[in-house]
Amino acid sequence: MTQPTPIRRDGHRPRLLDALDLAAAGVPVLPLRAGKLPFGNCPACTGNACGGRPTMKSSGRCQCPRPCHGWAAATTDTAVLQSPAWAEAWQQAQAVAYHPGGARLTVVDLDDADAASWARESLPATRIVPTTRGEHWIYLGSMRSANNVRPSVDIKSRMQYARWLGPGTGTMAHLPDTVRTLVDREETTPARSEVVSSPNRPATWDAAVATGCRHTERYVRTGLDRGVALIRARTETGAGSQAFGVAQFLAKQHAACPGPCGLDALRQHVIDAAVSVGVPEAYAERAVTNGLGSAA
Question: pTM for this one?
Fold first, then answer.
């Protein structure tokens, strides 16, 4: 006899069961806490000190058994999903997320009715999943992720996660060039300041602009790189607040230096990282400026 599906006290199927079903279908999954956010890294992984997971763009292999590093922790390994190390996260989970790129999928996240209307006029029909405010259009094939490729439209694939909201309806179509072109255009469209894609500007901080800094260049660059990695991991939300925290941390590092330490150059690196994951440039500039000032 088939056993009945367990039901939680709130009347819903346990989220771990949904995760196991997705994993069995080859879709990497992870739990989300309140606010649709991944669970925070463990102390050993703070600041990416562990070197990151194999699927991230940093060297080294994270040995932490917990669901660290946001989307990069998504897995299809049912033993990991059911392990004691993940148990607390599942008990607190408010939702299940999946890594579209890991399943060779791309999600066009349409965040309001206007965006959904645009998709119906501009994109090939595919599987559609209703969301709280709009729709997820899911295509076969993966690509680079990008936020704000047009008003209320994000592309979630290789380095982002998407909330699991059910299987949706319709047949998945292959990823069209129309969607790929959205990201290509986002990379080359000049910002209002007429500078193309500010996150891709070359690094400008070095010892030449930090003649009064008591730290080595390697020390400063390591702190900066870890801070930038934390900001870029905030692909869903919270990147602006993370940028403030990183700026505050960097400023405190230099509080005892006679100066100058080239903080203006560090400031631009942090702003660029926040803009690269969808934070409006004006908001990023304000958050970083406030973070640097709050450490005084």
Answer: 0.62
